[in-house]
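In practice, a research group might receive sequence data for several interacting partners and want a quick structural hypothesis before committing to experiments. The following worked case mirrors that situation: the sequences arrive first, and a predicted assembly follows.
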Amino acid sequence: MTSATVPAAAPLPADTRMRRLRAYRRMARTALRSLMAYQTSFLFGMLASAFAALSMLYLWRSVLSSGSRHGFDWPQMKAYLLVAFVAGSLVSSYTDYRMANRIRQGDVALDLVRPVDYQWGRFAESLGFVVYEAGTAVAVALVAALIFGGVPLPDPHTWGLFVVSALLVFPLRFGIVYVSGLLVFWTQNYVGVQAARIALITLFSGALVPLVFLPEWMRVASAYLPFAGMASTPALLYSGGLHGSAATTAVAVQGVWSVVLWWLARAMWAGACRKLTVHGG
Amino acid sequence: MHAPQVTLIQTVGLRKVFRKPDKGPGIRGSLRHLVQRKFSDHVAVAGIDLNIAEGEAVAYVGPNGAGKSTTVKMLSGILVPTSGQVFVDGLVPHRARVENARRVGVVFGQRTQLWWDLPVRESLELLRDMHGVKGPRYQARLEQLDSVLGLGELLPKTARKLSLGQRMRADLAAALIHEPRVVYLDEPTIGLDISVKDRVRSFVRQLVADGTTVLLTTHDLADIEELCQRIVIIDAGRVVYDGDLQTVKDLHVRERTMSFELAEALTGVDRIAERLPAAQVQLGSNDHELTVTFDRIALGAREVLSAVLAEAEIVDMHIDEPAIETVVRKVYAGELRVGAGNAPAAESTS
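A structural hypothesis for the assembly, expressed as tokens:
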């Protein structure tokens, strides 16, 4: 077999970080815009989860009316549930839903002929979505807080840590959602993957029930799994359930998982590209 | 001979094998597959060597499932080849995917690269920023695309509300906004009506005239005849012909048909047939019509004409010229094979 002589690459303006940054910024903005095109369906989704949060609030109010449990009194529980609600609304469905559909139908081919990194591209889009998701969820939470007679502010000593933890929710959730979206390359079907992901997150993130209420082994496991950082950690920091070294460790776990998931996704992507089959067209 | 040409696209022994799960029918088959995993290999591209010079317009033709789109996807960096080498403009597309994407424009007729929920203008602006096209240059490009594709009326429309023809025009603009040196058009005229097809074709002609290298995949033979001088025919993942369009026609499409309408009923069909032993002479649906089919190299139209004139008075006539369609049909039917002595080597070009 003759080997190919490499034709010389033609001059093209050198790629700059500037171009890439502009590209990602634009992608984030475009994602936000296209979400607004489906405002109604988004708001209905938000309404559904707002009702779920509302029923949780009523449930816990009656449970805690007879006194505090596992260190949660009613005002703390209110704060915990509302922060968990906001955290749980972030990167909730658009990123993986779109990704999975495009992979399944082969439209991912077109994402691959664009001059941007696939993962950073999805990250930028999720960032666009999250602005909208966070805005709406915070508004809903504020209204709920008013209805239930206000929510205490966090301990001034944990404010800083709470902010860091809240910011880490995004890369962490993105990591989980993106990795589960990539699984479609292997499963060719997303419904099952998504259901499993949602079930895992709901249980282990403490969004449904604070983790202290779970059996010992689950609590220990969840402390080191990536899920706690997706709702429980910021919610506990806000409501005053985490202090001192436990608090720092929990935030560190969030940070470590964000990085691990990012690189896990990179490795999966490399494998996925080899597996990619695009039928027809 | 031309000035030395720069090879822009090169593949050597390019192969792509897809692994497909072998599942039995029904739930039973699916369950068994979970335990006993069996796969079979499907060879989509079975070793393709291709050299395309800068500025060439090449038609890449073959039946459904021949491996056309798979080749294009490997050239675009979408698919990773199983083996073999591929270079586009000095880069290995799947290794330098982003850099390759900056130089290449791709149109898939069956998919859109517009953002479905956004006006076309915003899709184009997004692509502008992705490619880092500067403002004035973008404006100039937009005007240029507008003049050929009639883009202006499409810009404010949401992509999902476009008709197929409008969508294709917008998609062409989207793929070419960054003035790529290499353009792959994968069935760009599929499903379009004649007027839009014409528009797309004249646009591609313009591209070629501007020196863009074009690889065109199509089932529409008129596309090929109008746009390309060179044709590569593939079947079952292999190149069965690579050469210039006229040569392939001369070699494989020699049959020409002349149809006559005669002033009165023809009585001397046999006498005409005697005069033209090399041709097939047939009476049409009524005895006023006559068709003569002949090898256009063995026999000239003049001989046929004079033979018919000697026996009858002609009212009207027309000649059916060989079409590339016939060649491709032969390939599809499996009549044309490599090594059968009728496929010239690629070197016969230029």
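Before designing any experiment, note the following. Chain B touches chain A through 51 residues (CB under 8 Å). Residues 338-350 of chain B have pLDDT under 50 and may be disordered.
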